[in-house]
């Protein structure tokens, strides 16, 4: 099949208890596309950068098989910049800086070669741009998934709700789900979000795994218990990329297959947090992924004989 992704391609500066980086390549679109490209060989990226963005980084994405024809390079403008700091509890972080730069007036163009993509991933960026991409794809994809974050919930809630009403799957973290639904219980929040439009809701819970809601069912995936998390940046995006990349590759959007996709998403997130930025994603090979899938299977497999209990 074919997968089109829109999301930020960015410079990030990250600080964790393990160290600090200068500006390195990041962005939701970057992480989603890198994670998805392991599964879907026909992966297209739409984004915008300034002319300060090194060509080598785009070549790196191409080397992973990602089509970057949909990335606009704005002359005289700067690339989106984000800076974040993590403390000992890696599930929490502070955003120190968000500079939209070239993202501020980005008018996305969907290249002809991307038209006809069966799967569309609206990665984290301005909700209006996410909606424009839906509207500019001539034939509605088989599945549209959206990810967002508190920045857009705080700044553009009504526009975000409008875009959310147009998608099939919403992927969001627990605090954002609570904020969006104005509801503390994640089960109730997922129901309220279902009523906003998306048939499926995925709630990411950082080191505590993820929940998939849909068709009146719930599936719960663990996160891999790791002794230490090096850098959680992009984990949510790698989760989304693994999820949608696997669905696109298998072309099966049943709830049963989405359960597998949630595991694949968790696997990709578990790699990403082992090193700074995109470093780990650029090292791993399909065999590493297979091995880790097995670790997840072993982690959750149990066989209780109910008749032996009472
Ligand atoms: P995650 O850790 O999965 O939430 O994603 C982190 C990535 O999101 C970083 O690489 C940032 O460049 C990018 N990012 C941070 N803030 C925003 C924002 N407001 N909109 C789009 N992307 C963002």
Verbal overview:
There is one protein chain. The chain is α/β, with parallel strands linked by helices and 310 residues long. It has one domain: Ribokinase (UDP-N-acetylmuramoyl-L-alanine:D-glutamate ligase), CATH 3.40.1190. Helices cover 36% and strands 24% of the residues. The protein has helices at 28-37, 55-63, 127-136, 150-155, 157-164, 174-181, 186-196, 235-250, 255-272, 286-300, and strands spanning 3-6, 10-16, 19-20, 24-26, 43-50, 66-74, 81-86, 93-99, 119-122, 143-147, 169-173, 200-204, 210-214, 217-221. Strand 5, helix 2 (55-63) and strand 6 (66-74) form a beta-alpha-beta unit. Helix 3 packs parallel to helix 5 and helix 8 (235-250) packs across helix 9 (255-272). It is globular, with a radius of gyration of 18 Å. The protein starts with a strand and ends in a 10-residue tail after the last helix. Bound molecules: adenosine monophosphate (AMP).
Question: In a few lines, what is going on in this structure?
Answer:
The chain has 310 residues and is of the alpha/beta class. The chain has one domain: UDP-N-acetylmuramoyl-L-alanine:D-glutamate ligase, CATH 3.40.1190.20.
